[in-house]
Amino acid sequence: MPASIKENLTSKGAVIQDLKDNQKILNNFLNLIKKINTLPDISMRFYEEDRSLYQATALISNIGTLEKMLHSFFSVPIKPAGQALPLKLRFNPVVRYLKGLKKDQTLYLKPIKTGKFYGVLWPWQSDLDKIEIHLGFYAKNMPADDYRQLQILINKSISRSEIDGAGEMAGGKIHGISIPSFLQMSEMEGSTCTLAIQADNQIGYLNLLDGNLIGAQTGNLKDKEAAYQIISWDNAVIEIQPPGQAKKNSINQPLMHILMESLKIKDETESSDKTIPAVPKALKAELEEAALEELSRKAAPGRKGIGQTKKDKEKTGQPALVKKLGLALLVLLIVVPLTLFFTKLIKSKQAATEYKTLIQQIEKQDLLEEKENLFLKYLVDHKNSVYADMIKKKIADLHKDIEDRDFEAATFKVNSLKVDIEYEKKALGLYSEFLKKYPHSHYTKEITFLIAGIKNLVDEKFYEKIKMSGKLDFGERLKLYRSYLASFPKGKYRQKVEKMIQEMGAQYFHFIQGQVHICQEAQNWEKCLGLCEDFLTAFTKNSHYKDVQILAKEIKDRQDLLILKKKVAMAGADYHKAKQIYLKYLKKHPNTYEKGNINQELAELEIRIQNKKEWRKILAFVKNPRNDVFISIKLLESYLSNNVGGPNASKAKKMLIDLKTRKESIIKTQVNAKGQQEEINRIQMEKIRQSQARIRLKKIKDEISTRLNLTGKRFVNNGNDTVTDTTTGLMWSLLDSEMELNQCLNYADALEYMKTRHYGGYNDWRFPTASELASIYKNKPYFPSSGAKWYWTSETFIKGYHVVANIVSAQQETIFEKKTVSQKECGAVRFVRP
After folding, report:
1. pLDDT at 336
2. Angle between the 255-273 and 223-231 helix axes, to the nearest 10 degrees?
3. Mean pLDDT across 244-265
4. Are the C-beta atoms of 242 and 222 separated by less than 8 Å?
């Protein structure tokens, strides 16, 4: 990559990176600018806000050379001069950025991935001998700082090219480079110096501080006025001198503003040099005298002069009066034509001055109608002006420009209209309004074609809107699709839209299926019934119509079952009444989808009825003091095991406690000795088990520590049952649950187990995510395996009717596959923090 590109294009933005990737194209673009800048009669243009990266003005005689140069880089123009701007280009982002193109302007484009290089040849309206050149780059949403970097690269390339091509004189003097270019280069380089400028017999000084122009002097002029004059000089010799002591900025204006003002002064000077000079009075007198003498010689052939001798007078015999009259007539014949000539010359000069003033006024106007009014007023005030034909042509061109502008405005308004039912009416109104204003427009054929295609255009636009409706909610999209079918019964995309509605119906059907579980958990079947009713109303022709009917019937039956259960609950312990409620419903709805559940409820009610009878028998036996206590206890225990949440469970528990108290007092003596011995044995066995567990864990920790050392410096054993991953910064438990407990855990047990862990004194241990586990088991060097097949993660969710969690295998491999298992499965867990 060239050093200049690398130094100046430092942004990490996508556009700058794309320019770097296309450095060959970028270099060719820079070379094109440098070649154009070296052409004769090229003048750089300066603006308060640059429209393009490179802007210059050239004489029209260079148009062929310019087109050849631009063709070598851009290939053929996308919009040649002399052709109206095509409709497809009117909303091109580059054309909109340039604020439109006229018929006599030429546009070149060369795209890359993120933007387009462009070139424009732009003839002046006020001076047909000049053509403006615009070369630039357009990228949507390009950051201002990135565009600034590209602009600096262009300016440095131009300035460096001019300096490299400039002649070097003795004593550090530079010639052959324009003052504006040298100042721009100095601004970018941040130079601090004094520039001594010589041009013809003039000399001036420019003071620079950190690239800023802070002072200037030439003759009696200082600061801004001096800078304006010095910078406008041509063929200047620049001498770089040490900086002066002054640090105060006496100009306080941006360099670009100074350059623009200097250019105006230069243009005014050049314009004034082109005015027709007046004929000096002395020259006028000499012309009259020479003409008089010449005519007198022609009036008296063969004579030496106007004066005659006495002898001559006698020979002619003419009276003196006749001679005097002849002489007066001769003078009149000379003076009158000369007077007419100079009068005509003065009028011609006055007309030229007035025309120049008119053109200057025209250039200050923004509105084309204002320019036209000024031209018309001039014609009224100067009916016989020599510029009348030229002005009439300009008025005709203005008429065409106004028509072009109004056509573009009309098409823009049409394209800006909201595509709805009123679109066709509004579009026809806009086109009709244009044709009414321009009944003989050269756009008539094009508008006729556009009007003929409005219905198709509306169809296309409406369908485009449909394709962009993905972010709308379900109801709005369905409404939009139906609106299309209603508006375009024979539309081009009718089948596609109908297919979209079918697909929406399928999506809605699956959505309803997913909501059933939610409705069931919330015991709110009204929502799901409403969804089914909406589907049956909206998608009468959908293939899932019958499915939704069946689903609605199932949901309605589930809702009925919920109501039945509430009625049964109100019956309380009157199980016979509850049984009759269910039987009555089944008789009325024999085909209900909840028939199985109702039969199950009836079976449970029957069990409760039998349990109630059984309880009465047990109660009678237990209350009889003559019956055996041990048998009573067994009867109550058996009852409670079969009726954990039964209505008599609490009473049975209380009675069981009383009976057991009595039982304990009987067998207390027998059991006491045996119990003490068993406790002693249990404590001894627990101590042995704990000792064996400590030995086993120490052995595992030593083995893990040894294997951690083999992973290099990634995993650091902190010596407190924790390990730090230096790659991610996470802290892991040295041992997993299977190592410590020598058994697997389901998800709930693993959570409870985590609450008891305080490795390294930390209390914020947690389950890792799947990605965190993959970072140590699926990326080398791997964390030592423990023998566990897989680990629980923190990623849990509901799948159907089950609560599940993501797991990650403990196998050391570079392939990462996330799996899901029920939380009831048995696995291992390795904790992580923070």
Report:
1. 60
2. 60
3. 77
4. no
